[in-house]
Design a protein that fits this description.
- The chain has 11 helices and 5 strands; from the N terminus they run E-H-H-E-H-H-H-E-H-H-E-H-E-H-H-H.
- With 171 residues, it is an alpha/beta fold.
- The chain starts with a strand and ends with a helix.
- The model has no long low-confidence stretch (mean pLDDT 91).
């Protein structure tokens, strides 16, 4: 039986890679999902963020190079053209594969909801790691702090936060 696809955007791959140092989480995710990125995300990673993702794409993600037949459906739900090429391709590939998508950006999450795609973001993946016992609360919180220090846009971790409180505050 084939694993369900999990199509990831550039920021998620960067956060899982060198920003967050979360290869152990990626390995666990790969046991449950066929991890993939569209070629547009691969281009973004290679062009702009080589230092952020390391070799995580080569080790754990398949690059899907198919023509995106459902791109028009995504564009119909993005009338302001606020999505970049990578986010648009992730959502279109998610529709084609009937899979799940991982998008951090607010507009991408909104369009994913409109398309009725199951969407995760980086924080959701950490929550999954905590819930499944793959990571401790402290490891999740430390990953957020590392990612934020490396450029991930997310709220500041407060002194009294544990990861569950932090994630709850983001809802």
């Amino acid at each position: 039986m084939a694993l369900p696809a999990l199509v990831c955007d550039t920021s998620v791959v960067s956060n899982l890679g060198r920003r967050g140092g979360l290869e152990a989480l990626v390995r666990r995710l790969a046991e449950r999902h066929a991890l993939c990125v569209p070629q547009e995300v691969e281009r973004e990673l290679l062009r702009d963020r080589v230092a952020d993702h390391g070799d995580i794409v080569n080790k754990w993600f398949a690059v899907d190079r198919r023509p995106l037949a459902k791109i028009h459906e995504v564009l119909r739900h993005d009338p302001d053209q606020a999505l970049d090429a990578g986010e648009t391709a992730v959502l279109a590939l998610g529709l084609e594969l009937s899979g799940r998508v991982c998008v951090d950006e607010r507009v991408g999450r909104r369009v994913a909801r409109a398309l009725k795609l199951e969407n995760y973001n980086t924080i959701n993946l950490l929550e999954m790691g905590l819930r499944e016992g793959w990571m401790s609360d402290g490891e999740c919180l430390a990953a957020v702090i590392r990612m934020k220090a490396a450029g991930f846009y997310c709220p500041k971790v407060l002194a009294n936060d544990d990861f569950e409180a932090y994630a709850w505050r983001l809802r």
